[in-house]
Amino acid sequence: MAEMTMIEAIRSALRLEMERDERVIVMGEDVGQLGGVFRATDGLRQFFGPSRVVDTPLAESVIAGSALGLALTGLVPVIEIQFLGFAQNAYHQICQQLARSRYRTRGAQPAQITVRAPFGGNVRTPEFHSDSMESQFAQNTGLKIVMPASAPDAKGLLLQSIRDPDPVLFLEPLRGYRMISGEVPDGDYTVPFGALRTVREGSDVTLVAWSGSVPVAAEAAELLDAKGVSAHVVDLRTLVPLDEAGLVAALERTGRCVVVHEAPATAGFGAEVVALLQEQAFYSLEAPLRRVAAPDSHYPLPGVERDFVPGAGLVVRAALETLEA
Amino acid sequence: MAEMTMIEAIRSALRLEMERDERVIVMGEDVGQLGGVFRATDGLRQFFGPSRVVDTPLAESVIAGSALGLALTGLVPVIEIQFLGFAQNAYHQICQQLARSRYRTRGAQPAQITVRAPFGGNVRTPEFHSDSMESQFAQNTGLKIVMPASAPDAKGLLLQSIRDPDPVLFLEPLRGYRMISGEVPDGDYTVPFGALRTVREGSDVTLVAWSGSVPVAAEAAELLDAKGVSAHVVDLRTLVPLDEAGLVAALERTGRCVVVHEAPATAGFGAEVVALLQEQAFYSLEAPLRRVAAPDSHYPLPGVERDFVPGAGLVVRAALETLEA
Amino acid sequence: MRVEPQFLPSTEAVEPIRLLDEAGRLAPGAEAPLDPSRTLEALRFMMFGRAFDARCWSMQRQGRLGTFAPITGQEAAIMGSAMAADPARDWLVPQYRELPALLRHGYPVERVVLYRQGHPAGGFVPPGVRVMPYQVSLAAQLPHAVGIGWGMKLQAQSGVAMVYFGDGASSEGDFHESCNLAGIVDAPVIFLLQNNGWAISTPRSIQTAGSDIASRAPAYGFPGVSVDGNDLMAVYLVTAQAVERARQGGGPTLIEAHTYRMGAHTTADDPSRYVDPETEKGWARRDPILRVQRYLAQLGEWSEDRDAQWRKEIEADVDDAFERASRFPPPRASDLYEHVFDEVTPALARQRRWHLQEAAGGDEETG
Amino acid sequence: MRVEPQFLPSTEAVEPIRLLDEAGRLAPGAEAPLDPSRTLEALRFMMFGRAFDARCWSMQRQGRLGTFAPITGQEAAIMGSAMAADPARDWLVPQYRELPALLRHGYPVERVVLYRQGHPAGGFVPPGVRVMPYQVSLAAQLPHAVGIGWGMKLQAQSGVAMVYFGDGASSEGDFHESCNLAGIVDAPVIFLLQNNGWAISTPRSIQTAGSDIASRAPAYGFPGVSVDGNDLMAVYLVTAQAVERARQGGGPTLIEAHTYRMGAHTTADDPSRYVDPETEKGWARRDPILRVQRYLAQLGEWSEDRDAQWRKEIEADVDDAFERASRFPPPRASDLYEHVFDEVTPALARQRRWHLQEAAGGDEETG
Ligand SMILES: Cc1ncc(C[n+]2csc(CCOP(=O)(O)OP(=O)(O)O)c2C)c(N)n1
Ligand SMILES: Cc1ncc(C[n+]2csc(CCOP(=O)(O)OP(=O)(O)O)c2C)c(N)n1
Ligand SMILES: [Mg+2]
Ligand SMILES: [Mg+2]
Prior knowledge:
heterotetramer, A: alpha/beta, 2 domains, 14 strands, globular, C: alpha/beta, Rossmann fold, 7 strands, 8% strand, binds thiamine diphosphate, binds magnesium ion
């Protein structure tokens, strides 16, 4: 066990897996010599050399697309898209090629590929660097979507991602890289997909979040506590596969629920969570399920980003409204 | 008034608007000499010449991206993406450039561009030709999403789209091109965005659909009729802007609702409709809101597409379950 | 004062490399790079491809087959290149017009039949067969091929990746990103451009203003070759040399094979709307199959009898392909739920139970 | 038998066109394409750009400004090209390092300050100013520029579009699609590649295996030029000729200006992790501003006094830029809801009411 930040946990997982499995290669823009713009891959090149830690040209589509070819030759690519927003440049490769290779070939050519990318707001980045795209990827089947919110999960879920036989989008909350830290077990361990994490137990209202919104939900729970409201907080960890049974159970604890995320509300993954819960647990609902999300606008320049990214105050307000409903 | 198929209605709108407004240009793969692979632009080149009806090279990203530049010089581009699935190749241009130009420049550089694209299943097309992408685009704000289901709407909504000062995705149901027809008014008229259409009145259960799923919902309503169940059917027409008040009113007619669409269920636009209705009309709900959608799989080869695309039988089943819930 | 740009466009295309003329005569001084027996091997695949097209076309017209893309006219470009690939170590990455190349590489023909019938099983690739399935998204296969070539190189294998694409596909961004990366990592990749003059109705002249698409290669750091794509020998020769260079670590080559789509884009197309009949006739005279047969006839290896005999055998082979396909069980709705992921997700399991009305494991409901 | 590919990569880069040497001397036989007064005009923008960088850098370090991309070292590439553009009819389409070019074209400097302060108003472009805002998604601006050039041509206007992009951006698919389309429609577009040696930490050698990026142009049907990007006169000359050609209907030109990023990629970067200090020193000697000053000194147009005087004036101009920016009201949460669409959608209206706790129009609730 050691106290680590999230970025350290990610780096340690990469290092461990590259040592354990020599088929693993890491590639992307600036991942080699520089060690990544956030240093997620720092030091890897010294250990594993430039043919396993590859600086690529600036071309997201061929970074993603060539990974499928590499995988067909038996390698296990872990690619970095420097910021998730730029995955739009590789959208057709990720969603139509990586995600469908297994299906198209009836299992003959699966794509064991991990796509790592940071995203999320409140770190004063330029346009596109903070955009949340999880819901769009979730609508494209064939991709597993992994969104850790804690340091130990970052390590255990990344190890699981690299070993998973399907393409995995491993989305890292920028704000958490250095702000989120925790006790991380030494050595090899994995965290399974499709099993949510209970962040905090409570009985009045259930807060559902993932990635960078988990600390927001947890903070809201503290604030609610001070008002005498007991919030149950869960971290979904993976959106695909989704822990449906765990979600229903979490809702049933309280009969009320607020889902929190950073992407715009309309067609965000919050809509899926709400739709699913009302389908599967209708008779447990004490009040309308609520979403607290970014508005249907674009991630703004930093001067107003704190208004765009939903904060704990809004979560508290929605939770209280839910209790009054 | 004349009886027209949907493709004829689209063609007549293009012709009318090009005559009315000489800033309008049509461009895309095979739209000129050939008149489009479905003949949506047939005859336009003869009338308006090759500099207003432009055959482009095979490159979706620059087709979409150059439209923004054309718009900045005062032209009004109507681009065709040959099949909606290939809009993934232009995803970053459509979602990050066209959709954000107005916002980024605080209104100085809006993008008056219409992106036409066919999609939708049960016409035995190859991979990617049938994929429904509306929910992904809806999650990227800044795009209006127009999805006509009838011939007169196709004309009136297309005229409205071309004149709209914002980028519009005008999505055309392949299956409807020749199968859907109706009385289309002569001359110039527009159908406003954000106003749903009541396809049929009913009192027991509300069926919500758009585009190619509207005939499916209507067929289900007939079948339900035969079982003594009265279905209220609405066609959303535009997903962005969404007629929220109209949707709530349609639900309140019956207290029960089934949303039907062709995209996979998870994070499909059905989730948004369900989430919204339960948020805004919770106390009118008599039963869980239901979605009938494609499974979380990929559009298959034609041999099983009729199983992938939700048919009226499944809608009936879901509606009956809703009534028993 | 005026200065000249160092890089100026050329106004005329270069002369494509050619070994056999339209009468099947070897160019003066040329040697045939394929001996008679290998030439016959190639011809057999070429003739099979054309016969298979004809059969599929008539079945499509009867509504018994879906839309497909014929290869007629492009057989020399396809087989000349494919003959240079070694099925035991090289990969073929097709667009959608490379049927005989895939067959020679070990891909089972009945899978192609199933694919055209719309059967999901048509996508399966048997273990050990080094081909990727047909690609519908234009140019999307190019990055894959770069990854394959690069991956083999990283693992010190001697294989090369041969990737096919059309003149239309060459305008996509993926073309550029792929050539550029292949040049940087010196991947053993043969970029085999079948320039058949058309992308559906879009002529080559609207596809690019450059004189030769092959001339893009040097800026990526590797050679480009322009070859007569209706000349089996020439295509084979330039491809075999490119394969050899790639195996030796010499990196990629871009080969532009000038050929012609002798007919419709697909069964859904009506080329009379855009093709000039004169142009079509000109290309009919350059038929790649006739050219090989004429060449072989000069060597005494081809005759009317042999032709008749082969046609009969090939028809039987085509029958056999359909017959083998017919032995597959018909597709089922449950196929939709398979091979989406390694393991079924809770959502898929729930959807499947409801959709197929299978024994429910609980109270889940959504469709 | 062996044949040679018609298109072979060259092993060495061509000599970039140069008029001024490092000491500011005109090449033998060369004429200066900019007269002293226009040279001074360009120099003023160059010096302003560098001073603005320095000020922003120190304010960024104090936490009073966001991350930004400095231009230091690239002033000649930027202003040599910009001087060839006519603000009244030509469009500038920047990447993110072209500050002085935008200013000359009429873009208000206080908007750049606001942008770097993270104020949404920093994106506004005043009516009549023919520039697009900074582009963060690499190469995404290239298609826009093609559309602008093409649109002007379709409307028989004489303007050209000048689009800037980096060596890194040149690897994106959009580069290819844009050059290719521009060649086909003969759009009046100047593709101005600032090859500054780096894409963050990625050196030019990993960006492409080709010897010259400019050499890609002929395959798109138009000329490519390689120019010393630290030489104001040479950049101006080749750009002015390209603009002239484009105005006459001669279509696009790709100009590769060889320059150097003298410092960090952005304020967030640490170049000591990847830049060799010797290389850096070499480029410092080639400083584009010094070169112009030395040239002007030979003409008797530059002196230490003038230098001191200008520096003072420029500092005052920089002060003024910040002062003007400070007069804008601070950004507000409601900015998020504006300019998303022409008219507010029901969803946005509802979200805004809840978020800003504005008077509710009904029972809507969601955030
Ligand atoms: C990305 C993409 N855009 C558009 C299409 C539609 N489409 C199918 S084939 C075709 C023309 C392809 O031309 P080319 O690459 O020259 O190949 P050919 O058909 O001539 O063999 C087009 C536009 C597609 N399949 N993929
Ligand atoms: C599509 C895209 N991918 C990645 C990035 C992240 N990024 C920002 S700047 C940069 C390097 C750009 O290099 P170059 O084009 O040479 O311009 P320079 O910064 O050298 O002026 C990268 C990788 C981005 N902004 N956009
Ligand atoms: Mg072609
Ligand atoms: Mg650079």
